[in-house]
Task: inverse folding
């Protein structure tokens, strides 16, 4: 039985990935931070087979302990301060968790494998780093591939660039089986309500149910390549099953604006978005990422990966799930 350790187990991807790995026959451990993490119960309910271990990406010893307890074949580093807006307000924390957290985990792996600073490690524990399309930021070309220059536009994007390159560097310096998945936006009913797609699907449901009348948005012209999280975690797993470690762009190859997402979501319940959406300039970011669109051809060819859920399916899935969540319980 293969074993995996996942950081960020309480997040959207952690819950999808753990489900996928349990289904593949893995024994899965997840790193849980804090004394009374409010999301513990959620993870225990959704993926009861996962064993939760205490630890925090800002605490190196806790990572070593978690590795010693879980003895994983594969480590998936999904833990991060992942909300771009908050990264301007808590830039140091973002650098520490999202950037240095990856380095701490790589060093923890070297520590438990008994490596020396100069010598190459045996490619024992495989490592996956959750890199992000936010690294492309003010994109130098459209679509973006593994060869596109990085130009991050937020403290979050900058921290992810550090984590990405330290992963590449540990692969090259120590021969570690370390991969980075450069994932474009992926969403679904488990998406945190602070992100724009879930903010919209939740508001649409509440407006349809008569619980609210309007919602606010910031820059509705921003374009993203949105896919479904359940499809994307399969790519993470596939990367660690290859002969050689490498980096891959994962996305759909199609982009849509926030305006289009809202239009589709309101239309799905028979409403006109223009009657319910107000623009709030306080929601604009100090520096915006205008257009992200993936070129996932390498992943398609090398991993045989392709997304299954379309943009329309995704919008419908999220709105339907929120109609169910928000419906007053009898
Ligand atoms: P998410 O829902 O925001 O989850 C983030 C996870 O990180 C949570 O489990 C959180 O735990 C954990 N975390 C935060 N601070 C931590 C710390 N100090 N130590 C350990 N864990 C900590 O994010 P997601 O959407 O699942 O994304 C997963 C990863 O992929 C993240 O690294 C994200 O930056 C990256 N990514 C996401 C996307 C996307 O579109 N979703 C695209 C590209 C890359 P708590 O619940 O305890 O806060
Ligand atoms: O914003 C615009 C906003 O916060 C998308 C994270 O998972 O994906 C995510 O980062 C766009 C931006 O996601 C609102 O200005 C308009 O242009 O949903 P978001 P994100 O910033 O793209 C990447 C790949 C990650 O790696 C990150 O971890 O929508 N927007 N109005 C708004 N955004 C929010 N949140 N709220 C609004 O009201």
Result:
């Amino acid at each position: 039985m293969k074993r995996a350790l996942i950081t960020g187990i309480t997040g959207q991807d952690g819950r999808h990935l753990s489900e996928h790995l349990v289904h593949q026959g893995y024994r899965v451990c997840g790193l849980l931070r804090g004394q009374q993490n409010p999301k513990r119960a959620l993870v225990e309910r959704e993926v009861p087979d996962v064993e939760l271990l205490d630890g925090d990406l800002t605490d190196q010893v806790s990572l070593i302990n978690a590795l010693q307890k879980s003895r994983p074949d594969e480590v998936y580093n999904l833990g991060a301060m992942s909300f771009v807006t908050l990264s301007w307000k808590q830039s140091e924390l973002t650098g520490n968790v999202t950037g240095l957290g990856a380095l701490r985990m790589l060093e923890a792996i070297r520590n438990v494998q008994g490596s020396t600073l100069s010598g190459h490690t045996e490619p024992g524990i495989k490592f996956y780093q959750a890199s992000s399309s936010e690294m492309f930021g003010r994109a130098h070309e459209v679509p973006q591939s593994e060869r596109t220059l990085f130009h991050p536009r937020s403290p979050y994007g900058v921290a992810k660039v550090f984590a990405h390159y330290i992963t590449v560097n540990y692969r090259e310096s120590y021969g570690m089986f370390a991969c980075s998945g450069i994932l474009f936006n992926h969403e679904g009913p488990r998406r945190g309500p602070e992100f724009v797609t879930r903010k919209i699907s939740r508001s649409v449901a509440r407006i349809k149910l008569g619980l609210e009348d309007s919602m606010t948005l910031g820059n509705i012209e921003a374009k993203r390549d949105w896919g479904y999280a359940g499809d994307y975690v399969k790519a993470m797993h596939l990367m660690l099953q290859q002969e050689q470690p490498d980096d891959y762009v994962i996305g759909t190859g199609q982009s849509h604006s926030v305006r289009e997402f809202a239009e589709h979501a309101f239309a799905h319940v028979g409403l006109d978005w223009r009657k319910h959406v107000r623009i709030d300039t306080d929601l604009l970011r100090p520096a915006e990422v205008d257009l992200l669109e993936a070129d996932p051809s390498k992943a398609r060819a090398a991993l045989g990966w392709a997304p299954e859920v379309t943009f329309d399916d995704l919008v419908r899935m999220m709105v339907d799930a929120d109609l169910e969540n928000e419906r007053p319980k009898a």
The longest strand covers residues 126-132.
